[in-house]
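To close the section, here is one more complete example, presented without commentary so you can practise reading it yourself. The ligand is calcium ion.
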Amino acid sequence: MELFVLMMLVVGPHIPTIHTWHQLIVYETLEFHFVNISMNWMDAQSYCRLKHTDLATIQNVQDLLIVVSMPLSPLSWIGLYDDLIYWRYSSEFWVYESVWSNTSYVNWASGQPSNDGGEEFCVLMTGDGSWDDLNCSSNASFVCQGGGQYHLVNLPLAWLDARIHCGTFYEEMAIVDRSHKNQMVLQVTGGQPAWIGIHRNAWKWSDSSPAYFRPWAPTQPDNSNPGEHCAVSTSIGIWQDENCLSEFPFVCHGGKCVLS
Ligand SMILES: [Ca+2]
Ligand SMILES: [Ca+2]
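Output:
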């Protein structure tokens, strides 16, 4: 535990907000409340919003140290969840994001999106034109668009590198938001599996804060029991994904408080 915390302090990506005032170091943080009642994640969220502000948002090592200083249960819900709804197009410069509703065009293959291993955030067009969500670090050919046409690039790259390639040499990665566009892309690929320009921002906080700090336990998240779309903190402060319908005690946060 001590080693972990020390490592987090040394290498953690976020430094707490620090104000120097009259030689004092003052930390701003949220106040946290451990609730020792077992509920599923959604009910815990409702409880926290009613009694405090929201399920706990833990954005840096300072927050984490405060949370683990409480007498947590072995697994306690926090506000982090895997957002399976918001698929979107984006380049390096713009984002087109919409709730994927019945009126939005999708062409998922049977059983997809599957989010295997809890790490499938990018969309591959398969050989028959249907879509599969895959790990974005997988290498695949990809489809760009530019000059009013789609272009297959036979250079296996990870999804993000493919998007950069499209932005550099064409205009964008392929936007496929209509059935006839899906057919046009399929004609260009000739059935070769290829990335298209759709992905999702996976892990988010219940209170909509950005979720860059994610100290997962080794091998987590793994979505090992499908439906593991919500996160718990272990008592030592590293996290794992669990089925949102499981029942655990939980941590809420209230407003900001100041430590000095
Ligand atoms: Ca999949
Ligand atoms: Ca898990």
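Once you have examined the tokens, check your reading against these statements. The chain has five helices and 16 strands. Residues 1-26 have pLDDT under 50 and may be disordered.
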